[in-house]
Each structure stands twice: as C-alpha cells, then as structure tokens.
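Many groups now describe folds with learned vocabularies. In that spirit, our science desk offers one protein's residues alongside their backbone shape tokens.
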Amino acid sequence: MFSQGNAGASAYARVGVETGVMGADPHRLILMLYQGARQAIAQARMHLQQGNIGPRGEAISKAMNIIAGGLQASLKKDVGGDLALRLDALYNYMVRRLLDANLEQSEAILIEVDRLLATLEEAWIGISDQVAKRAAQGAPDAQR
C-alpha cells in the first residue's frame, strides 16, 4: 500500500516527534498535545469527506485518546482549583462530542471540538511568556 520512500518519511517524522517530546518542557508538551489532537481531528474530517469509515474512526479515537489520556490526565485537580475542574469538564465534553461525531458522521461536531481546542491552544500559547519568566526565576511551572 505504501512505498518504501513513504515508510522512510514516516519513520523520520516519528523520530522528529519523539525527539521533540524528549526535549520538551511541560508547557511545550501540553502544546504538542493540543496540536496532535487538532491534527487528528483534521485527519478525521478528511476521512469523513472521503467516506473512509475505518480511518475516520481511528483518527477520532486518536483525538479522544490525546484529550482524555494526555490533556485531561495532566490536570492537577488538587492544586489547579476551579480552573482545573472546568477544564476537566470541558475535556469530558469534547470526548463525548467526538464520539457523537463518529456515530453521526458529523463534520460540524468535529469543527466544534477543533474550535474548542484551538481556543485552549491559543490561550496556552498566550501564557508561554509567563511560564518562561517563572522558569528563569526558578519557580515551579504554572499549575494547570
């Protein structure tokens, strides 16, 4: 199905991602999770438009796993207060909506979740200066 050249490019991309993860600070890792979830949703939309049921489901599952197993699992609810609890509820909502998107074959729902993730990603990027200042001062990373 894929040529050897494509396999090589895929392996190269995996190494790049793994290297990025290994060298990333916690703030960057969360950003990478947002980007990965959004990329999976973009793939799901493409597969939905092309009628590729299996790959669409795989892409949606990947986005759900990133949200629940990465973003939601990284929340520190014991120290994050109301913000962490609200993010937890929002991540639950997103996972449910992605399940709905798959069942209903709904691009509109995929767009809705992508927009929510884009808003959170934008906010996360917006606090990067504060995180960098705290790191330079030797303070612990900002709590989520």
